[in-house]
Write a structure and sequence with these properties.
By secondary structure, the protein is α/β, with parallel strands linked by helices. 29% of the residues lie in helices and 14% in strands. Bound molecules: iron/sulfur cluster (2 copies).
Length: 325
């Protein structure tokens, strides 16, 4: 049997998704036996020009992790789309923008000011800011252009499948790779390596649907290790999040921590944060608007909490609706 051609690319992300592939341990060796890796910047020394010279569709599968933050990310997204038969948005950043997508609360200028002018660890007396083109005695230098917003992969190119998670759980990665190798894939556009239920459906913490007058962050309360987090006033995104990180779930059950929502919106949910807001509204123990406001005000950083992984793909997307990239 001819070996598959596999590309793995890391755009605007942290590298954890590449580590999730390495964490498949001996499966990585199996991947090496069944596939020729044509691009994997974290592990191999292939050049972009090699991909550019390939015929369209020459790569069987591309696992693309990270969002699109700059012109290099966009170039590779378009290039790998053209060259790949199957393009998989791998991990929360490619799927929904991920944690780097929270930068969409700020403009490019605000980010540059913070990083290159105001940060306490920066020493930049001449206020040199990155720019795509620079003239130096040796010649012209170019670096990728930094965009005003971070985009999930599907906002730039057509995506065949989504493999969620931050990072995707290793058993799900193994199962998804097996399905790809066997050609045993669902219809285009599906979320693979995950469940068709909400996390609450697969969570084994007993849930009594208690009403809440006070919300806590996990370090502010000695919580019951068995009971549902939301019942104890600890924000847990299980009602709005797709299950599939493990059964039992790896955070709420195996790690005794509330769900942060990295597997993205539950099936048939478009906007994870909005869905969670509606779940939250149903547990607040008050009908008095003033009291409801004071209970909600206890929630630290609502946007960062409800849209930790999905802001860039949400209805909010970025801070000002009239902005262009
Ligand atoms: S999804 Fe998570 S692990 Fe993967 S690149 Fe993004 S931040 Fe890193
Ligand atoms: S809210 Fe969280 S802790 Fe409670 S049942 Fe759902 S996933 Fe489990």
């Amino acid at each position: 049997m001819a070996k598959l051609k596999l590309a793995i690319y890391w755009a605007a992300g942290c590298g954890g998704c590449d580590v999730a592939i390495l964490d498949t341990k001996e499966k990585v060796l199996e991947i090496g036996q069944i596939a020729d890796i044509v691009l994997w910047p974290i592990a191999t020394d292939h050049k972009y020009e090699e991909i550019e010279k390939m015929a369209d569709g020459a790569i069987d599968v591309c696992l693309f992790n990270g969002g699109v933050r700059n012109s290099e990310n966009e170039h590779l997204a378009r290039l790998l789309r053209a060259k790949s038969k199957i393009l998989v948005a791998f991990g929360a950043c490619a799927h929904l923008g991920g944690i780097p997508g929270l930068v969409n609360l700020f403009t490019k200028e605000e980010v540059f000011n913070c990083v290159f002018r105001e940060s306490q660890s920066i020493d930049n007396p001449n206020e040199v800011f990155p720019k795509p083109q620079s003239s130096v005695p040796e010649g012209e230098l170019s670096i990728p252009e930094f965009y005003n917003t971070l985009l999930p992969l599907k906002a730039v190119v057509d995506v065949d499948y989504y493999l969620p998670g931050c990072s995707p759980a290793v058993p799900q990665v193994v199962a998804a790779i097996d399905a790809i190798v066997k050609g045993d894939l669902p219809p285009k556009g599906a979320v693979i390596g995950a469940s068709e239920k909400t996390l609450c459906d697969e969570c084994t913490r007993p849930k009594e649907d208690r009403k809440i007058k006070k919300f806590y962050r996990p370090h502010e309360i000695i919580f019951d290790n068995k009971q549902c987090f939301l019942d104890q006033g600890i924000i847990c995104l299980g009602p709005a999040t797709r299950a599939g990180c493990g059964n039992p779930p790896r955070c709420t059950v195996l790690s005794n921590m509330p769900c942060r929502g990295c597997y993205g919106p539950a099936p048939k949910v478009h906007d994870q944060g909005a869905k969670f807001l509606s779940a939250l509204a149903s547990v607040i123990d008050s009908n008095d608007p003033a009291e409801i406001n004071s209970i909600i005000a206890q929630i630290a950083d609502p946007v960062g909490t409800f849209y930790r992984f999905g802001l860039a793909a949400s209805y909010l997307r970025w801070k000002r609706s009239n902005e262009k990239n």
